[in-house]
Design goal:
InterPro entries: Acyl_CoA_acyltransferase, GNAT_dom. About 30% of the residues lie in helices and about 25% in strands. The chain is of the alpha+beta class. It has one domain: Gcn5-related N-acetyltransferase (GNAT) (Aminopeptidase). The radius of gyration is 16 Å and the shape is globular.
Length: about 190
């Protein structure tokens, strides 16, 4: 009986996305299958629109953080981002995309962990991710990366909320009654 082997862990470098890297976004998007695009954007997206591209490149390193994972040869293989909620400055929405050929190599976990640490240093206490129920890989990733995670259904998605503490790391995340009550509010 053959045993299934997982893809080898690959060394990648994480760095900030720059505002002028539209070509990099295009390369990442081209590496996503139609299914991966649907799972990431919750809609069948055949191409990035000009408005979407502008929004994804609108980074400032504080309220809109984006980190790129690059292979040793400089090829972009993933991106993770957090965008601060203007109505609740201690909260940011998080998303991650890994090109299909690089799935199951630990890149998503590295990206979400690094983005969470960057966001936390900038005052974010809650990270929110909207994940389609059929996206088992993303659900597993967020649940394994964030020890304290709340979830609830919202229209077509599962909303995952990771609560960060103020200690500066992801190991000792905590949750308060205020956080629970905030998630129950409509």
């Amino acid at each position: 009986m053959a045993t299934k082997q997982s893809a080898p862990r690959t060394e990648v470098t994480l760095r900030d996305l720059r505002r002028d890297e539209g070509d990099l976004l295009d390369a990442l998007f081209a590496g996503l299958s139609p299914r991966s695009r649907y799972l990431r954007f919750h809609s069948p997206i055949p191409a990035l629109s000009a408005g979407m591209r502008r929004a994804l490149l609108d980074v400032d390193g504080r309220d809109r953080i984006a980190l790129v994972a690059e292979a040793a040869d400089g090829t972009p293989v993933g991106i993770g981002r957090a965008v601060r909620n203007t109505g609740r400055p201690d909260e940011a929405e998080m998303a991650v995309s890994i090109v299909d050929a690089w799935h199951r190599r630990g890149i998503g976990r590295r990206l979400v962990t690094a983005v969470a640490q960057r966001a936390q240093v900038r005052g974010v206490r809650r990270l929110v991710a909207r994940v389609l129920p059929e996206n088992a890989a993303a659900l597993g990733l967020f649940r394994s990366a964030f020890p304290v995670l709340l979830s609830h259904r919202d229209d077509d998605a599962i909303v995952l909320v990771a609560v960060l503490d103020n200690a500066g790391g992801t190991e000792g995340w905590t949750i308060t009654m205020d956080d629970i009550l905030a998630d129950l509010a409509p």
